[in-house]
From TrEMBL, chains A, B, C, D:
Lipid bilayer topology: Multi-pass membrane protein
Family membership noted in the UniProt record: Belongs to the MIP/aquaporin (TC 1.A.8) family.
Name of the protein this chain belongs to: Aquaporin
Keyword Membrane: yes
Keyword Secreted: no
Matching SUPFAM superfamilies: Aquaporin-like
Gene Ontology molecular function terms on file: channel activity
Transmembrane segments: 44-63, 84-106, 126-150, 162-182, 202-221
One Gene Ontology cellular component annotation held by this UniProt entry: plasma membrane
Major place of residence: membrane
Compartments where found: Membrane
UniProtKB keywords: Membrane, Transmembrane, Transmembrane helix, Transport
């Protein structure tokens, strides 16, 4: 990986994209007034935030804003290992910066009202360990499948509305699982609030499910759903 | 039909697509907390799930994920009889697998709370037999018309946002009929939960309406709405 | 206008499109359970129904499904007078057929519950005559402006998601005005339920506003928003 | 800037676009019945209104309908200073005209019910001055970033669904901030209702944040996210 201006731009974009995802998404989550359909409202706002991030930054760095997506992107051979590591580091730093800024911006009464904490997820008590891991893995797998489809050459002509489709995919998956596991499908936005509240162990199961999906789905995609469009083995020098 | 790797991919994709449709769609249905606009929430989530399935698997096998669509596709001459039968078999198997997995993932309290059962539909009591069959037939007909339009050569340039349009079409049709007949518009997701609850007879009327629409609409499409774009009579060898 | 098979197809399509608009749209309206956000739910379902109709029939006849749109289309010179008259006649007949079928399909308890009647609109009592006409005219004008933009050559490359945009435009306009004038923006769906309930005079003000918009907007569009893209004066022989 | 017919068209379009934005958006706001999810309903309607305005007028004048966007457009070098000033003047005039017309159209009971006034925003009491300015600046920055992405040459092939994306971006940003600062992100629709209610000072903080975002974001866009696609330095004669 040559450290040039273009690399800086991609790093800065992943940092900004993840910071924006956390800042805007968690601001909407904190301002949710609750009530009958509060989970749908949360899901819709989270999905729209993903769409905003992809619309603004999509053509600069890809706008993964999610370590799982960068890992899958590497597993499929679309980016090099160094780029993936840089993306993940920038995403984690961006998530920290976004969450820190958010806590400065929200009034104290709003922060205190959020239980267990702003953007902090908790699995449903009656779920077993295996159920939490499997559900989070399945939902993250759907998200990664959506990205695999986006990156596939067969989908190359249909990229105009793809940010809207990915946003709506997040709405569907998040709504299905938000009461079960939190359904973040994103290690950055799962881990950062947990670290801020001094309890990163509480989200270990979800992280396991997410990473599992990030690694397994590209393997399945290449072997089950891709007939002959194998990626050309060109050495990548970026 | 030559049984090659490409055929395997299409079969695996229809299996996965229907399993995902049932798994994700019924998970959202089971987690619906009820309340004033619960039917709209169910419809929106079902429609978004259809969009997700079409986005992920659309360019691999077509992502019918619905026996009615495969039957109509065959009636219009887009796929061969053997392909249609394989698609329907894979769809039914996928629906079974998806529903089975879902029941393992949901906590017992959520499954017990779902009345009459997770994703199980019941027609409104005050509807006559003819009304149930006609309403389900009409709503499925709209869905099949949407697919006929998607497949039409005149629509060939407008496929970018078609998955979103089909998802929203499902929202509109499902919301209109969900309280009347259940408005599944999909024999796989109508029949499988009914079989699991030991009562497949209860959904016979809806199935009749759905199959009726799948057979009638392609005939109407070809004879009333298609002026000269008759499909070329090329023998199909797949 | 030569009465050939293509003309028959266009007439049958406008008939079907308007019947579907009334059938699906008013079915959703009748099944609305009320509650806090019932007007938004009605608006969303009405907008989605417009999108469904345009998606299915858009490339066959244009899928106006609304006499106002056909009148504006004629005023802009896109269709001939005979075609416009045929479209309007088919739309009114389709609206009648759709409403008649709907009343057969809905159970009696649902029909009785709808006040003042299924899909029947009433202006807010505190509005003056001029306010009802102006509001309905303004909202219909926005709808017609949306169609003028759709038909404009400058918009020719951006037609993929136009059915979704028009559906969302209907949501926005309908929600703004539904409590004020009913905000049908469509003489067919305004008049037909009123005739069925024996009271067509009650919707005269809305009809006046709608027709006014249909005639005025094309004039404004051509003179204020169109710099040099005047339609070529080619005699139309269809 | 040569004052020709094309300039008149652009001025008239910005006037109409902003008038429509205020008229339709504030009509929906005034008719909002409140209740649990009233802020989401307001946000959705405001976002859809932005989409309507961009769909109808987008290809005529760009449909900024927002002084911030015109300022950013000038800062990026896409329009000349005179054009920007003309756009802003027309937008303010259009906002006045739209708000004036709206007050004539709404019945007195609806106007009286709106607290503190139709479309009038108030920051949350517990927010400090710096918090109000920063939040409004951040949300407006996201909107401006969305426009920067829209204008970018790298996005040139993906303009079909861009009006929907911008509408949904407005939904996401407005919902996140509506309870905090009002989240108008538009000096025209922030200032005009405040002037009508004789209290323009009350929105000074929001205006500061908005203008700040309009000036800062283009600078950041050009220096951080744009690697080599510098705008060609061609003298602009319009």
């Amino acid at each position: 990986m040559i450290w040039d201006f273009f690399t800086f731009i991609r790093a800065a974009t992943e940092f900004s994209a993840t910071a924006l995802l956390i800042l805007l998404g968690c601001m909407g989550d904190a301002m949710n007034q609750g009530g009958e359909h509060k989970f749908l409202v949360t899901s819709v706002h989270y999905g729209l935030t993903v769409m905003v991030v992809m619309h603004v930054f999509g053509f600069v760095s890809g706008a993964h804003a999610n370590p799982c997506i960068s890992i899958s992107c590497y597993c499929l051979g679309h980016i090099a290992l160094e780029v993936m590591l840089m993306y993940v580091a920038c995403q984690m730093a961006g998530a920290f910066a976004g969450y820190l800024l958010l806590l400065q911006l929200l009034p104290k009464e709003v922060v205190d009202k959020s239980k267990p904490g702003v953007c902090l997820v908790q699995p449903m008590h009656s779920l077993s360990t295996a159920q939490v891991v499997t559900i989070e893995c399945l939902l993250t797998a759907v998200l990664v499948l959506g990205w695999c489809a986006l990156w596939d050459v067969r989908n190359g002509r249909f990229l105009d509305s793809v940010t809207i489709r990915m946003g709506l995919l997040v709405v569907a998956c998040h709504y299905a699982g938000v009461q079960l596991t939190g359904a973040c499908m994103n290690p950055a936005s799962t881990l950062v609030p947990a670290i801020f509240h001094g309890n990163p162990d509480a989200v270990l199961l979800q992280l396991t499910g997410q990473i599992l999906a990030a690694v397994l789905v590209p393997f399945v995609w290449n072997n089950v759903y891709t007939p002959r469009y194998k990626p050309l083995e060109i050495p990548v020098y970026n």
